[in-house]
Amino acid sequence: MTLSTPVIWVIFPLVAAAICILLSGRPQLSLIIASAIAFGLAVLAAFLPHELSLGPLTIVLEESLRFLGRRITLVYAMLPLIALLYAATGLWLLSSNLPGVPKTFRPISLVVTAALTAALGVEPFLYAALLIETMVLVSVPMLSSSTIENRRAVLRFLSLMTLAMPFILIAGWLLTGVDTLPPDSPLIAQSAIVLGLGFAIWLAVFPFHSWVPMISQHSHPTVFSFLFFILPTGVLVFGLNFFNRYGFLRTSETLFNIIRLIGVLMIAYGGVSTAVQDHLKRAFGFSVLVETGFSLLAISSASSGGIIWMLMMLPPRALGYWLWGYTLARLESRYDMVLNLKAIQGQSLRFPFLSSGLILAQFSIAGMPLLASFPIKIALLSQVLAENMVSGLWSFFGGLGLFIFTIRLLLSFHQPIDIEIKQPWFLQDKFPHFLPIILTVVILIISGLFPGKIFPSIIDILAAFPQLQFLP
Prior knowledge:
By secondary structure, the chain is mainly alpha-helical. The protein has helices at 5-22, 27-47, 79-94, 105-121, 127-143, 148-174, 186-202, 211-218, 221-245, 247-250, 253-275, 280-300, 306-312, 314-334, 352-366, 374-387, 389-413, 431-449, 451-454, and strands spanning 2-4, 51-54, 57-62, 64-67, 70-73, 122-123.
């Protein structure tokens, strides 16, 4: 018996999403099924053999499937990334029972992850742009609410994401046969400019970033934290296809310098904007820009192993974003709090685990020592400082903006509303609410202490991009 990998990780999640829609009236059953399927697919991707033996039945796995006239090929080298995507989706699905999470989140999150998985292996590979656009369109219902501000944010998000797709497709058309052109051909520069513009819009590079803090401020934390992880991850990995296929991109020193400049700009701008924020959810949005900047900074150091650092940042980023979104959702929805620095004054006395979880999530994303992102970011910043002192310093000081905001948040949590009144310490956090926080923080600490032991297989996906292993 033969079974193709796209059937397992693309078709089956779509069927599961349909089941979740049918079970919308039974939320607990829908939660169990969706989470079990997501984690099951993650475990299967992490430990899948080439053959499965179930008693007398032997299942041989194929890597390709023809679907709607196109071929989807999920090679074994991509399975570690697929495992990460479905594990992250399962993690967010576990928190989908929080108050205020849209009922559409469970089926849509499965559809989005399935579409991204298909985008990783669709042939011709430019059809991935259409699948990423599908992700954007499908995600709109879970972002939308009745407020005017939210509608404006979603409309801007949809408009910019849709605008990016034609640039990617036009660039792909221009790149046809580009390897046969002389190095000084103007078509090469034109192709690179159009391609770069499309990716800049997708990744919310300044000045196309305005929708990010708008979405984070007016959408549910569980929803936007999931979207802010899954969408840039798909776009970044899709971008590796272009470097793998076109030699002039891999060998262009000017291109990598531009990517570095953009990365530094995003880190500096996002860091400063985060540092001066008073609204916690908007600060999350600007922090996402910083993380995207670090990914671009890593790509710009590709000849020094930067792509490995970019990939290794993904698991800690998923954990940090989830913990950030979970604690924000608990503070906002469960306790009906306005999420600004003034409103949370003294709340650490009432909700010590929630407040500590939020602070540690932000410290992890910022790259605090002993937490998961620190070993990767310190290695990246050290390499950038060695290659370009100015870029390294700007990136370092931009990253400090996340620390500054977190210190401000920490002081607000511990500052009583009335300094004349001594409030006793008492616990209002419930054990089922703070248990996920404790477990996530433990994983973040272990990952920071042993960075090469927890998520080592993520870099195996470079085998799917053989030309990236020979960057000059």
